[in-house]
């Protein structure tokens, strides 16, 4: 039997200590199987980003355990096995768009492929800006560069935190289509945190979060 990509048992996350501690995540148990595509739906402040950062190994749980049976130890997660699309992307200002996109491959000591970089940029309608520096981009273009950078290495697990939040509706739907096409063709496990039902409805499985609690898991018909 194929092990799950991620497994968590009663993980919590609190910020601060004592009576003033803020509980961002109540005890949460889940398992994410290989190839699953999950939308984590909830309002701002519901705990989506907190949970996503724990799944990514970017943060430590206050209690409980989380591990990655389908990947390996935590130190094996980056830079290639787990990709992360952040809501507010950070690009290296001295690197061109194409160089920023190829950065995970370089950090992971994998050869860069110019044709794959062009394909990743083309899928996000970024062909014309490949040689520009980040300060020559619009906010929406920079966001799409961050998406292309996360897609290029074909990670085992791809996580996205409000990936279309900085994009207009047409561009957001185009970018989401590019992400979903990529993960489906390559059987990448995918979790997207969103407050937008129009985004969540395009993913096969829907999880809901409210006040730091994973309140429901249900199937969804993806478009």
Helical content (DSSP H or I, runs of 4+): 25-40%
Mean of residue pLDDT values: 93
Main beta sheet: 6 strands, mixed
Give the topology string: H per helix, E per strand.
Answer: EEEHEEHHHHEHEHEE
Oligomer category = single chain
Q: What is the top-level CATH class?
A: Alpha Beta
What labels describe this entry?
Rossmann fold; 9 strands; 28% helix; 7 helices; alpha/beta; 223 residues
Short structural description:
The protein is an alpha/beta fold and 223 residues long. The protein has seven helices and nine strands.
Please explain how this structure is put together.
The protein has helices at 48-55, 97-101, 103-107, 114-123, 139-151, 169-185, 197-200; strands at residues 6-15, 22-32, 37-41, 63-67, 82-85, 157-161, 189-194, 205-210, 213-219. The strands form two sheets. A six-stranded mixed sheet has the order 5-6-7-3-8-9, sandwiched between helices. It has a three-stranded antiparallel sheet with strand order 2-1-4, covered by helices on one side. Helix 4 (114-123) packs across helix 5. The protein has seven helices and nine strands, in the order E-E-E-H-E-E-H-H-H-H-E-H-E-H-E-E. By secondary structure, the chain is α/β, with parallel strands linked by helices. The mean pLDDT is 93. It has a single domain (35-54, 73-219), classed as Rossmann fold (3-Layer(aba) Sandwich), CATH 3.40.50. The protein starts with 5 loop residues before the first strand and ends with a strand. Helix content is 28%, strand content 26%.
